[in-house]
């Protein structure tokens, strides 16, 4: 190698440093996955706020029940689904593996499980709606069961992708940890 103003080492033109300036792939992946998970968490918070608003309007009778129906039973445990998202966000600054694992486990327990229960709870009403065309609960003139099934489908996708990206992020962090242990 050469000094700043002095002669160059024999056999080099000074461009052989390029390979050392690349960021390791697991660090790049970590940044990308954190960004994707944050987007999914913010989407989840939006869904969560909509359900919270529907529950508040239903319980406090801010609008008539023909405008906004009372919440289904699955919506109450789903309110706890904000906790895994907060754990996920807390795991990011220091790449805390234990917080991310807790977030993934509690996502299954507090987010995915209520969604599965909700799909089963609303199935008889959806079946009645599509067989006989009768709906008894409404949200702003639309069938409540149709709207809530749409919410369940979107939320299931959000949580599914969140779990997928969290697993990939966990793998990326383990790769980083293993490389540090080798040194």
What does this structure look like?
The chain has 183 residues and is mainly alpha-helical. It has one domain. It has helices spanning 25-59, 75-78, 82-91, 97-132, 144-182; strands spanning 138-139, 142-143. A two-stranded antiparallel ribbon has the order 1-2. α1 (25-59) runs antiparallel to α3 (82-91). The two termini are 25 Å apart. The mean pLDDT is 88.
Any descriptors?
transmembrane helix, mainly alpha, 183 residues, membrane, transmembrane, elongated
Quick structural summary:
The protein is mostly helical.
Itemize the secondary structure elements and their pairings:
Layout: H1 25-59, H2 75-78, H3 82-91, H4 97-132, E1 138-139, E2 142-143, H5 144-182
Antiparallel strand pairs: 1-2
Helix pairs in contact: 1-3, 1-5, 3-4, 4-5
Family: Belongs to the jagunal family.
Membrane topology: Multi-pass membrane protein
Protein name: Protein jagunal homolog 1
Radius of gyration: 25 Å
Instruction: Indicate the proportion of strand residues.
Output: under 5%
* Alpha-carbon distance between the two ends: 25 Å
Give a quick account of the main beta sheet: strands, pairing sense, barrel closure. Answer: 2 strands, antiparallel
Strand neighbour order, sheet with most strands? 1-2
Q: Give me the count of strands.
A: 2
* SSE pattern: HHHHEEH
Shape verdict: elongated
Query: Averaging pLDDT over every residue, what do you get?
Result: 88
Helical percentage = 55-70%
Number of helices: 5
């Amino acid at each position: 190698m050469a000094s700043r103003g002095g002669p160059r080492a024999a056999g080099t033109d000074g461009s052989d440093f390029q390979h050392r300036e690349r960021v390791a792939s697991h660090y790049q992946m970590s940044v990308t996955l954190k960004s994707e998970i944050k987007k999914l968490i913010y989407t989840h918070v939006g869904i969560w706020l909509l359900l919270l608003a529907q529950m508040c309007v239903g319980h406090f009778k801010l609008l008539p029940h023909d405008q906004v129906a009372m919440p289904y039973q699955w919506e109450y445990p789903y309110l706890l689904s904000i906790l895994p998202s907060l754990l996920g966000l807390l795991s990011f600054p220091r790449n805390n593996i234990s917080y991310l694992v807790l977030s993934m486990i509690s996502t299954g327990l507090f987010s995915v499980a209520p969604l599965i229960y909700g799909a089963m709870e609303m199935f008889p009403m959806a079946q009645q709606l599509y067989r006989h065309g009768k709906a008894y609960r409404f949200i702003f003139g639309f069938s409540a069961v149709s709207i809530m099934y749409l919410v369940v489908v979107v939320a299931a996708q959000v949580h599914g992708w969140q779990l997928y990206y969290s697993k990939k992020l966990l793998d990326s962090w383990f790769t980083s940890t293993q490389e540090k242990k080798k040194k």
